[in-house]
Amino acid sequence: MPSAITCEDALRRWRAGATPTLRTQTTPAAELLAACHPDHGPNARVPLAVGVNRGDACQPELAQQLQANALIDDVDIAGAQLVTTDVLVIGGGGAGCAAALTAAEHGAKVLLATKLRLGDSNTVMAEGGIQAAVGEDDSPQLHFEDTLRAGHFCAEPALVAQMVLDGPDVVRWLIRLGMAFDLEDGQPLGGKLLRKKPGGASAARILSYRDYTGLEMMRVLREAVELDARIDTWNRCPAVELLSDERGRCAGAVLYNLEWRCFVLVRACAVLLATGGAGRLHLNRFPTSNHYGATADGLVLAYRLGARLRELDSFQYHPTGIAYPPHLAGALVSEAARSAGARLINGEGQRFVDELAPRDVVAAAILRECAEGRGIEREGQLGVFLDTPTLALQHPGILEERLVTLRHLARKCGHDPAREPFLVYPTLHYQNGGVAIDRHGAASVPGLYCVGELSGGLHGRNRLMGNALLDILSMGRRAGASAAQSAGRFIAGRAGIGHVYAWQRELMLAGLPLQRKAPQLFPTYAHFDLRADVQLASKTAARCVGDPR
Amino acid sequence: MVCGVNQVLLRQEIRVGADLDAWLAHGGGDGLKQALAAPGQVIAVIEQADLRGMGGAGFATCRKWAPVAAATAADKWVICNGNEDEPGTFKDRFLLEHTPHQVIEGALIAAVATHANHVVLYVNPQQPAALAAVREALQQWRDHALVPQIEQHLDAALALAVVPSSGLYIGGEETAVIATVEGSFPFPRRKPPFPAQSGVHGAPTIVNNVETLAHVPGILRFGAAWYRGLGRNGAAGTKLYSLSGDVLRPGLYELPMGTPLHELVFEHGGGLLQGKPFKAVFTGGPSNTLLTRDDLDVALDFDAVRARGSRLGTGAMIVVGEGTGIVRKVAEYLNFFAQGSCGQCPPCKGGTFQLTRLLNRIDTGRGVRADLDAIENLCRLLPGSGRCGLIDGAVTVVQSSLRQFRDEYEALLMA
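Above: the input entities. Below: the structure tokens describing the complete assembly.
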């Protein structure tokens, strides 16, 4: 660990209510990113050796997952129950729910399978809000430009254009479903939506509900899904493999029922993956703000089936994750705090970065402070201060009224945010890239749709705050509608795991090990072993005495 | 003894596609000239070479040709059967696409030997690349000087035609081929009469597989002794093996006829995926008895495989390793047969459907012992009940998998 200033010393240099001036920036943003952002280190990327993206750069730990063997073999699914549906949605977060609802609206029979429980997802952890260009001083054009610029112009312009244009309608849809938004002060019910300015944006465009916008959104989405008779919901059924037909079209998925401990084959006309990101792989050994299920399942499955991926070496590190206490490491302090005016202070009591700069710049700046000895150390945890007491002094009552989650989090950390600053450190937050999709959310494999954090191309190499919630709803609804069109049109003659054998062949010929299996389904510290858990398959698996697993 | 790969039909230098000049530059046309020089000798040479029907039957080719040559008729037909549609077989499409002239020259030699004035290339339109190559190649022959020489020998005009097949599995059966060439639906017919006696519009007809005819130019050019010398363990010539399934390097291999199974799987195919133990092989497409671990030493020629109670068939080898369930594979094949049944014989139409239903029940964990009993009863009732061999082939797979892997079926039963 680099040298650091102790928390006691730092607290002595810090004074509540003080507004230190911003240290003059010497390094331009691009240089700062190249020097300090985890995406840019010497070990930040390796070329993939197999699959559609052979030769493309990928984060090394993710590459291990992508180039792993399948969890199951053909015998494991012998005797497995077979269920058919029109659209199979895998993932019970915001994107999955929006897709399921829209597909059902379009007349498809929908099965929504989720690894944890419906709504147990990163969506509920989105605190800041959703971006939509609804203000008089704002326009989708500005939103488009902000998004592309923040993403270092690596995003797909057509996708971004479609998303920003969808913004206002998405918000209208949410309101119709019953979601509450913050309204402008003094307005009666039916007043104007309260808009806040997010980091990196040129207009006030964030619509929020207090600082648990995602939770409120998930509340209405979950209710809508549960009340919809056309949608079957299966909780605790992770997908362990996709099914393909003889032409390579995605024809369904193999689910593992964690309660019954058996595999189920679901044959579907279209499969919609909405499994979220990869934070729980703890890439580059960072803590993560992600929920328990974010283990890159969809990415691994889609890649094995032949879907093209993009920007696999680009991740977003949220600048303000909890650094102390250690058991909460990675938990998120919402950007709402910074957009309300909270400052970041280093161990020397200085402000060292514009807090509303794009997330990658702020995160890199914090990492630089820590690397150069100006970080703050408390019981082995390194970070910088997020100055909530000064915020509370400047805006009395803000902690009680608008930053409810923040106060709740401080209570869990064991301190009063109005008296003591948070110790924060960047936390692995978002997978910028993912499965390459078209405007309907379709991946390069026929019959396969990918939406939400799993997909790539909407955010380039860095995502703006509030664009994730917009992404999941805009693309989720479009993909759901498009997937519903294939209902009844593609009935696979054979659906199996033939692509897994082609994959194993590639791995063997590339000299890669076959022992590592993916998707991981749960974080490594969960001690989940699918093989040990499967009781049904054991009777057939016992036959495979020579199987080296 | 030569053990090389791809030394005759799949030689790299003759994979010239539909380019007649390139084919002739690599020794093409020599066989045809030999045949024209001594047309009466052709059948004898083919007989000495012990050329077999590579489409699955392994029937001596000369015995199909001789009656047609001996018949007196105004019209005689030579049909090159390229319908190839069985799962796991992918040899004919490769030949037609990459060396169409080799195949066409073989058919022309057959016409010379039997005085046939109609040559038809019957190609599956589901393989568009093969169909396009054959169309182009045949056009090149029509303009070539060798054709008038053949017509002079025949003393009649030679009609060369490409007929796209129906693309249905049943369209590969030889009487169904004839029905299609006549312009009707590919319903198989009862045999006898055999096509050699009464084929297209009642005329004597030869129906040969693509690979069979592809061998003919070489035999004529280099002689029967050369051809016999290519084989191993007493078998003659070379054979195209379509290797697929759980092997590391699946693909099309031309090997000496009589190459042992373990050599094909482990040396050429690179062994099994993940180093799993070998479990079984569906030979010749799915319609034969399975070969198991005990049969790894079998020489892959028609007679040796038959001695093990199975058949070489088209030379397709679908390898199954431990870790792959037999029941699902069999259910998939039966589904293929049920889809492929032409429906004119009720026992076949209903039988394949019912077997598929029962197998799917067991495969998806809903089967009971009564289902297994029903399958066994059907296997006793159905054989021989169709005009063609489709139902027999279907039953053979089920029966053999049940005999050899009964425990796998039993393990999946609910009660």
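Note for the figure: Chain A has 17 helices and 21 strands.
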